[in-house]
Write a structure and sequence with these properties.
The protein has 10 helices and 8 strands. It has an 8-stranded mixed beta sheet, with helices on both faces.
Length: 321
């Protein structure tokens, strides 16, 4: 069934939305969208493709506009600049109209062939969220292979949620989407926010496939920034760690002070230049790290209290009725 059919024509059937943040994907976007449409047609349900151009500097918007002319099911937003994937994803979710919303990347690494199974599981299981989890991460750089497991290990321990193999490739019913939209923070971590909601979730494994063209725009710096947001928005433990460490150093200082006083009174005091220097270096380093941890949380607060919008839309495409 062609996706351009309206919801009114199939009023008794669920309406699907596919939200895809797009950034510098002009080279392979038509092929990716063709694969997604083919998979959606297998579901025999009316649907829409909600594309969000996150300020791409290449021909991505021109490609999206051409797709919208050729396929009525395509809707699109063009953000005024690159606000980041999480903000673009938020824009797509806010504008999606489906009874169920599928979130997936536009680089082809989220296999479109999995969509019919996700829809089937959603309709038969009654789950609020169908989550695709990575059974194999595919080809990655050395920093990603080492950094990703470490990040999720830390986040799992600090947040109390399980993120191993987690991805942004999910199907969410309307209840889950509306609940997600109620969370208005500016520092977003999509997969963490969906886990925090606690809705009934069914997991489906998938293997990450290689990109069909181009290179990932996720630099090590961007990954580190997302990791810091994920940790600071889902756990206050690092702040408590500063307090615990301060109490530990206080206890050690008291013991060292008592020892020093005893040696002084006993007439056995000796010069400890090396010990003093080492203690100053250790304590000084700890203080700088502590200030950095506190600074990260202050930065999150600073960004939240400004109350700026998550994104700005400069252009949109809506299908003609």
């Amino acid at each position: 069934m062609e996706g351009s059919q309206t919801r009114n024509a199939q009023s008794r059937q669920p309406f699907l939305s596919v939200v895809m943040p797009v950034f510098r994907e002009a080279a392979h976007l038509p092929a990716t969208l063709a694969a997604v449409r083919s998979s959606l047609n297998e579901c025999n349900l009316p649907y829409e493709l909600m594309l969000v151009d996150d300020g791409s500097p290449d021909d991505t918007w021109r490609i999206i506009a051409a797709e919208a002319k050729a396929f009525q099911a395509v809707r699109a937003l063009r953000l005024s600049r690159n606000f980041g994937k999480e903000s673009a994803l938020s824009a797509g979710l806010e504008h999606a109209r489906g009874d169920a919303v599928i979130v997936m990347d536009a680089d082809g690494q989220h296999p479109a062939s999995l969509v019919p199974n996700m829809v089937r599981v959603w309709r038969t299981s009654g789950a609020d969220i169908v989550e695709a989890v990575k059974s194999k991460r595919g080809r990655e750089s050395l920093s990603s292979k080492l950094g990703a497991p470490l990040f999720y290990l830390i986040l799992n321990k600090l947040s109390g949620f399980h993120f191993k193999g987690a991805s942004d490739f999910k199907l969410m019913n309307r209840k889950a989407v509306n609940a997600w939209l109620e969370m208005r923070e500016r520092n977003m971590f999509f997969r963490g926010m969906t886990a925090w909601m606690g809705f009934t979730t069914v997991q489906i494994p998938f293997e990450v496939v290689p990109r069909s063209a181009g290179q990932s725009t996720w630099s090590a710096l961007k990954r580190l920034k997302l990791a810091l947001i994920g940790i600071t928005t889902f756990s206050s433990f690092p702040l408590h760690l500063v307090t615990f460490a301060g109490a530990l150093f206080l206890g050690l200082s008291v013991l060292l002070g008592l020892e020093t006083l005893y040696l002084k009174l006993a007439g056995r005091a000796v010069s400890g230049f090396t010990t003093v220097i080492l203690l100053e270096l250790i304590i000084g380093s700890f203080l700088m790290i502590s200030l950095g941890i506190i600074g990260e949380y202050l930065a999150r607060i600073y960004e939240e209290v400004k109350r700026r919008p998550r994104y700005l839309v400069t252009e949109s495409i809506e299908p003609k009725e």
